[in-house]
Amino acid sequence: MMLTVDDALARVLEATPRLPDQLVPVEQAAGRVLTESIASDIDSPPYDKSVVDGFALRAADVAAGIREFRVTGEVTAGDWPRMPVEPGAAIRIMTGAPMPEGADAVVMIEHTDAGMPAQPDKHSNTADALRPADMASAASAASGVDAPRPADGASAAGAAGAASAASGVNAADRWAPRAVVRLDGRPVVAGQNRMRRAASLAFGSVVLEAGRLIRPIEVGLLSEVGCVEVRVVPRPRVAVLSTGNELVPPSIVPTRGQIRNSNGPMLAALAEQAGAMAVPLGIARDDRQSLRQRMLAGLEADVLVLSGGVSAGALDLVPSVLEELGVVPRFHQVRLRPGKPLWFGVRSVAGRSTLVFGLPGNPVSSLVCWNLFVRPALEQMQGRPADGLASARGWLESPRSYRGDRPTYWPAVLLPRGNDVVRQESGRSATDVPAACGPDDRPRIRLLDWQGSADLRTLADANCLAFFPPGNREYTPDDPIDVRLL
Domain range spanning residue 207? Predict the structure, then answer.
């Protein structure tokens, strides 16, 4: 009995188990689904910290009108403050460093005279908040060279210049040692540029729930909370076997009556794209011994995907050999174009099941059946929603006449809205596809000149499959069409 696509998919998913948990190093967990909830073993950050480079101080001092602060110390990331911040004082602090006791705000270095060129102060006669004598002492301390004392009557600026010349330290450098710092007059409030302890996550809080797909971001978070290994759903092993006397490997130039095996590499790549581990089995000839030998190897995997040998020809031996090996058929043939001859069965041995898909031999048929049936099964095996290809809706670029008694998936290009240009990546090159929208700014669908289920060349230019339900119909640009995005 020929099933509908929905009924066939329901049978596939009904037979598809989720794989048992596996403990893996966290570095190998990306792309996997987490099977346990993870709680933090620390507070993050573990202390109040500065989120900028600048000066830690008391906001109340600024509110009281103080603009010039004594610099009494420095704290860097990985260090710990050695002294509290006293009234009228500031401690130089780096991004990520712990906040010193007594400080409740950080002023960015760019908002002080340490982070800008020295210039006359419009509110006072002082050209720079760092006094010249302090500049000389600071430069001397940084270089290890004694700063010359200014002679009686000599200008303080000359002394500072001499100290700078002797030491090679530029006194205007933002991180040069300094005795005082002057703010630029902006208001400062308590909590400014300070991140509180446990603001990101608190000890014992659940940071990731079971069922979460692990991306590189989650790998970083798991590492932050001390996870070295995590329990995940493993990658399914997918054996891929092409069948047919006419097939030769891609490295061989075909002779009369031969074609290259394009399905095998394509299906293996699709398996990897779906998060599985592909196990290529090469080519089996159309004889029972060759098929049986390679099928036995494939049945050791979680999924065995075959292409070819499932139609009604004299050499289409795949279904009968599979049944001889203990694979129980669940259905054969789906009301679908392309992909009608699809075969599906399950082999269960000692509590372990292998899903077996016999795909049609033509490459476009294989790709359509993969995306409609195999991909959702692999998603469910890995603990993900069995969604398959994403869907979208558009309107035909031009009128189209359709005739057929089966639902059809037609290679097409979904064009962007408006005057945008989409960058379409194909196997040949990256090309700019201009928009083709109507006055209502609706996305348009350009049907490709598809020559049938063997036309892999045209499929390479498609970014979607346009869906046409069964029946005879004249489609206009006002008719919406559903597509599956490739």
Answer: 22-44+199-232
Please check whether residue 32 is in contact with residue 235, taking contact to mean a CB–CB distance below 8 angstroms: yes
pTM above threshold 0.70: yes
DSSP 417: S
Task: Look at residue 228 and give its three-state secondary structure.
Answer: coil
- Report yes or no: 27 and 71 within 8 Å, Cβ to Cβ: no
**Residue 480 CB coordination number (10 Å):** 11
Residue 311 has a pLDDT of: 80
- The mean pLDDT of 61-80, rounded to a whole number, is 96
**Domain stop point among 381, 405, 438:** 381
Distance CA 197, CA 191 (A): 12
- Of 363, 381, 399, the residue that ends a domain is 381
The reply to whether 464 and 441 lie within a common domain is yes
Backbone angles phi, psi at 95, to 5 degrees: -55, 130
- pLDDT above 90 covers a percentage of the chain that reads 78
In a domain, 255, yes or no: yes
Whether the upstream peptide bond of residue 363 has omega within 30° of 0, thus cis, is no
Segment among 42-51, 81-90, 183-192, 429-438 with least mean pLDDT: 429-438
Mean pLDDT, range 162-179, rounded to an integer: 51
Low-confidence winner among 13-17, 257-261, 307-311, 417-421 (lowest mean pLDDT)? 417-421
Asked whether residue 467 is domain-assigned, the answer is yes
Alpha-carbon distance of 51 to 96, in angstroms, equals 6
Domain total of the chain: 4
Residues 28 and 58 both lie in one domain: no
